[in-house]
Structure formats: C-alpha cells, structure tokens
C-alpha cells in the first residue's frame, strides 16, 4: 500500500474509533439527563441511583473519547496539510467554533456536574446535566457542518486556489449537513437505548439483587430505542434525494465495501426498529423478563448499532472519493509530503494507541456495568471514578 492508501486507512481507523465513542457519549448523557429529571421531580431513590450508575459509565466513556479526539486532530494536521492550505479558511471555521463554544462549555458544565453532586441545589445540578447534553450535541453539530462542507462545499469563493469563506450561513443551511445531523442525532439515541437495554438485560438474566433498578432501566432503554429508530430510518432515507442531487456517483464511488456498509446499516436499523416495537408490549406485566429469551437477544444486540454506524460512515466517506473537498480538492492533492515509511510508522503508532484506548474503555465500562449500582446503604461515592485521582 502506498503512502496515500496508508493515510486514508489511518483516517478511517481514527475517525471510526472516535465516532463510536461520540455516539455512546451522546446517547448516555441524554438518558442520564432524563433519569435525573425524573429523580428531581419525583424524588424517587431508584431514579437517583440510576442517574449515578449510568452517569458513571457516561463519564468514563467521555474521558476516553476526548483522548481519541485529540489523537484524531493530530493525524489531521500531520497527514492532510493540503486541506488546511486550500480550505482552512472555510473548513476551520466550524471546527474552531466547535472547540471554543461547544467543547469548552461542555467540559465546564460536566466538571461542575461531577464536582457539584450533593453540593449544589438539585435544580441547579439538573440544569448542569441538560446544559452538558445540549453542548455535546452542539459540538456534533459543528463537526457535521464541517463534514457537510467536505461533501458539498458552499459559502466560499476561490481566491487564487485558496477557498475564502464569504457566507457562514450557507454552511448551516447546507442540505448535506442538515439531514445527516438529524441522522447522527437519532443514531446516538439508538446507541444509548440499546446499550442501556443490553446491560439491564444482563443483570436480569443473572438475577442480581437490583431487579427493580434494572427493570426500570430496561424500560427506559427499550422505549428510547423504539422512539429513536423511526427518526433514524427516516433521516437515513431522507439523505438519498440530497445525495442524488449533489453526489450522483456516490454509490459507485463507495464501491463494494461502502455498499456492504450501507446495507448493514439499513438492515440493522430496521432490525432494531422492529425488535424495539415488538418489545414494547412485552414490558407489560414483565413478560420480557418472564420469557427470558428476549433478554439474551438484548444483550447480543449491544454491538449492532456500533457496527451499523461504522458501515454508514464508510459509505458516506468512501462515496466522496477521489475528492477530499467534493469537486474542489482531490484527496491525493491534500496529503502532506510524508514518505511511505513515515506514514506506515504513523499508522502503526496511531492504531496501537487507539487500540489501547478502546480496550481500556471496554474494560472499564464492562467492569462497572457488571458490578452494577452501589448498594442502597453504601456510603456515597463520586459519580466519576476519575474524581479520587484528581
């Protein structure tokens, strides 16, 4: 494989890994905000414990997801300097906005939420988790604005081979951004719903002592998945008219791998839609627990939305080739002047680092998920396992 192929493979690995962290983070923070709202209004102790338990999983995934995002930014600068030279004035605007406005605010609100537990007024603390969730989605919004520009460059003029931003509003009304953002939004809720459902089903299979806790969590996960999947499918198919108008050759450019990814995503979306809506009646009188076999299917379904997300992302990005900025800048022209050996070394180092982060995330989350919530009479501990180390 030549240097260009290695650079593209490295981009695929880093963005795919990071994307999975983002989806779970968004899904979990939304569900944590919902459980904390119910806890604040009803003062139900089960809802408080749910907020603490799922919030802890969310914080672990968020922390390691930040690390993958920083690594991804490094590979952008190292391998794709041509993108910054030609389109940095346009492409950099939403990325800078994401960092300054969304990410910093999200981190600040999350920090206050973690350290303000049991210290702030409960309504102020509730406001913090919703602000964290809103800024998290704002962060994704600006990333998707930047990606929408790569798919369909708008709002610029060509100034001697350099793209200059002349219409910021055009980036926000870009049709390749709007529907795609709705798709990612509903995909994140689906990932969160399926994850909470699967972990809860695991504990119900094991017949742990926390039956009421995970029974309530299971209901939340199934209902969330059932509500999110119709929007997920609708927003997914809503992108095809946009693709047909602005990237008519996308399916051909995506090739066999992109086509398989698209098919996997569509099949998984319909499977989760049907399974969640068939599961809703089984929540009555706890039939889903009495029958037991649906619980095993719920555990096995945990990886499905992640695989579907990778498949859809492959189709979206492969279908843009051979362009990095569609119709303006070819991928090979945007690559940094890096030798093949240098690119191979970079690819191995970045992939190894991402593998370590992914394994660490999986081990930490799996351990916390298997352990379950703290006993009712246990002394209060920080929401974040990172807090004692700070």
Automatic annotation (TrEMBL):
<feature type="transmembrane region" description="Helical">
    <location>
        <begin position="127"/>
        <end position="150"/>
    </location>
</feature>
<keyword id="KW-1003">Cell membrane</keyword>
<keyword id="KW-0408">Iron</keyword>
<dbReference type="Pfam" id="PF01654">
    <property type="entry name" value="Cyt_bd_oxida_I"/>
</dbReference>
<feature type="transmembrane region" description="Helical">
    <location>
        <begin position="295"/>
        <end position="315"/>
    </location>
</feature>
<dbReference type="GO" id="GO:0005886">
    <property type="term" value="C:plasma membrane"/>
</dbReference>
<keyword id="KW-0812">Transmembrane</keyword>
<comment type="similarity">
    <text>Belongs to the cytochrome ubiquinol oxidase subunit 1 family.</text>
</comment>
<keyword id="KW-0479">Metal-binding</keyword>
<keyword id="KW-0249">Electron transport</keyword>
<protein>
    <submittedName>
        <fullName>Cytochrome d ubiquinol oxidase subunit I</fullName>
        <ecNumber>1.10.3.-</ecNumber>
    </submittedName>
</protein>
<feature type="transmembrane region" description="Helical">
    <location>
        <begin position="217"/>
        <end position="240"/>
    </location>
</feature>
<dbReference type="GO" id="GO:0046872">
    <property type="term" value="F:metal ion binding"/>
</dbReference>
<feature type="transmembrane region" description="Helical">
    <location>
        <begin position="55"/>
        <end position="78"/>
    </location>
</feature>
<keyword id="KW-0349">Heme</keyword>
<dbReference type="GO" id="GO:0020037">
    <property type="term" value="F:heme binding"/>
</dbReference>
<dbReference type="GO" id="GO:0070069">
    <property type="term" value="C:cytochrome complex"/>
</dbReference>
<dbReference type="GO" id="GO:0016682">
    <property type="term" value="F:oxidoreductase activity, acting on diphenols and related substances as donors, oxygen as acceptor"/>
</dbReference>
<keyword id="KW-0813">Transport</keyword>
<feature type="transmembrane region" description="Helical">
    <location>
        <begin position="343"/>
        <end position="365"/>
    </location>
</feature>
<keyword id="KW-0472">Membrane</keyword>
<feature type="transmembrane region" description="Helical">
    <location>
        <begin position="180"/>
        <end position="205"/>
    </location>
</feature>
<dbReference type="InterPro" id="IPR002585">
    <property type="entry name" value="Cyt-d_ubiquinol_oxidase_su_1"/>
</dbReference>
<dbReference type="GO" id="GO:0009055">
    <property type="term" value="F:electron transfer activity"/>
</dbReference>
<keyword id="KW-1133">Transmembrane helix</keyword>
<dbReference type="GO" id="GO:0019646">
    <property type="term" value="P:aerobic electron transport chain"/>
</dbReference>
<keyword id="KW-0560">Oxidoreductase</keyword>
<feature type="transmembrane region" description="Helical">
    <location>
        <begin position="260"/>
        <end position="283"/>
    </location>
</feature>
<feature type="transmembrane region" description="Helical">
    <location>
        <begin position="12"/>
        <end position="34"/>
    </location>
</feature>
<feature type="transmembrane region" description="Helical">
    <location>
        <begin position="90"/>
        <end position="115"/>
    </location>
</feature>
């Amino acid at each position: 494989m030549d240097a260009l192929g290695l650079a593209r493979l490295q981009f695929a690995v880093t963005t795919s890994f990071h994307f999975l962290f983002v989806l779970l983070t968004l899904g979990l923070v939304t569900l944590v905000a919902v459980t904390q709202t119910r806890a604040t209004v009803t003062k139900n102790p089960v809802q408080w414990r749910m907020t603490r338990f799922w919030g802890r999983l969310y914080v672990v995934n968020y922390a390691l997801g930040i690390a993958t995002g920083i690594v991804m930014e490094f590979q952008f600068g190292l391998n794709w300097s041509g993108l910054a030279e030609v389109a940095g004035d346009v492409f950099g605007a939403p990325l800078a906005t994401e960092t300054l406005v969304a990410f910093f605010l999200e981190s600040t609100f999350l920090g206050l939420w973690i350290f303000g537990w049991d210290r702030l007024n409960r309504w102020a603390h509730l406001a913090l988790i919703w602000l964290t969730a809103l800024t998290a989605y704002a962060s994704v919004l600006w990333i998707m604005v930047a990606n929408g520009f790569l798919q369909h460059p708008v709002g610029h003029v060509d100034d001697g081979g350099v793209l200059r931003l002349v219409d910021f509003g055009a980036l926000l009304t870009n049709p390749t951004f709007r529907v795609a953002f709705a798709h990612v939004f509903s995909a994140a809720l689906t990932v969160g719903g399926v994850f909470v459902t699967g972990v809860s089903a695991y504990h119900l299979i094991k017949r742990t002592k926390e039956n009421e806790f995970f029974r309530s969590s299971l209901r939340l996960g199934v209902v969330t998945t059932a509500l999110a999947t119709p929007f997920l499918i609708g927003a997914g198919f809503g992108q095809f008219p946009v693709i047909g108008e602005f990237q008519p050759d996308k399916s051909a450019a995506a090739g066999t791998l992109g086509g398989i990814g698209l098919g996997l995503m569509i099949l998984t979306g319909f499977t989760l839609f049907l399974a969640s809506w068939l599961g809703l009646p089984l929540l009555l009188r706890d039939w889903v627990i009495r029958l037991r076999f649906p619980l095993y299917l719920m555990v096995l379904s945990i990886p499905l939305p992640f695989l579907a997300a990778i498949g859809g992302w492959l189709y979206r990005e492969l279908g843009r080739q051979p362009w990095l900025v569609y119709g303006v800048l070819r991928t090979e022209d945007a690559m940094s002047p890096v030798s093949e050996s240098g690119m191979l070394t970079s690819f191995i180092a970045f992939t190894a680092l991402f593998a370590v982060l992914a394994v660490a995330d999986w081990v930490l989350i799996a351990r916390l998920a298997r352990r379950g919530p703290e006993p009712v009479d246990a002394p209060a501990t920080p929401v974040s396992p990172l807090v004692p180390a700070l």
